[in-house]
Amino acid sequence: MPETESMNHELYKELKDLHKNVGTFDNGSCLTGHLYPYKERQSCSYRWQGLKKARENKEIYNRHRPDAHIGAEGWGWASAEQVLKEKAGKLLYVGETATKSKKKKTKVKARNFTNAFVPYANNPHHVLPESCLANAIESVTKEKTELVNLIAGGLLEEKYNINHKDNIMIMPCCWKDGCRIGLPTHPRGNNHPNYRYTIENAVKDALEPYQQISDQGATHDKAKARKLKKTLEDISNDLYGELKTYGETLLSQCQNPEVTIDDIPQSVFTNAGL
Known about the structure:
13% strand, 274 residues
C-alpha cells in the first residue's frame, strides 16, 4: 500500500502492519480518517463508504430536488487542486473555468456525493469521530505504548474500521439544503466540540476495563477487544438512527436559525444511550 494511504496517526505508529485497506465495505481495519477522496473498492475511503450508507437511507437525500437525488448526476464547481488530487471524485465531465468567490473554479459533472460540492456542498461525517477514539485511548493509557498497542492492536485485529459505512453520515454544509432533507449541517472546518464531548466520554467508559489489565503488556485480550469493537459499533449505529430521527424535526424549518452538528440537543445522545 502506498505510504500516503497508510494509517498515519502517531499514536498508532507501531501498528501499521495491522492496518488493512481492503476492496470491500466490510473487513477493513483502520482507526484513522486518512483517505478522504472517493475511492471505489477501498474500505478506508470514507466518502465511498458514506455514499453506500446514503444509498441505504436514500429517502433522506431524495427529499431534495430530483437532480440532487442518490444515483443522479449533478454539476458543481471545483478548484484545480481538487480536480488534480482526485478530491473531485470520479468526474464525468470537466468543463470551463470561471472566477467564483474570487477564486478560479472549474465546472464539473459527477455522480452525486462522490465529492464535496455535487449536488451541493456536503461533508462525510464520522458519527463516532476518529478524534474521540484517539483522545480516549490517549487519556486512558496515559500514552503508555504497551497499553495503546493492547487496545488499538486488538481493535485492528478484530477488523474494526472507523471509516465503515455504518459510521459515516453524509451531511449538507449549508442550511438551505439541511432543512430540506432533514439533517443538521456540517460546515467545513467545524470541529464540533460539543458533539464530540459526549461521545468521547462514552468511549472512555468503554475503555475502562483496559486500565485493569495494563500488566498484560502486548498480549491482546481478544474477548475485551471484541466487546470494545461491538460497543463502538453500537455507538455509531444508535447515534446514526437518532440523528435521522432528530432530523425529521428540521424539515421545512428554513426560516429558523441554522442547526449545525454542534447544535443538536443532548436528548439525541441520551436516546442513543450515551
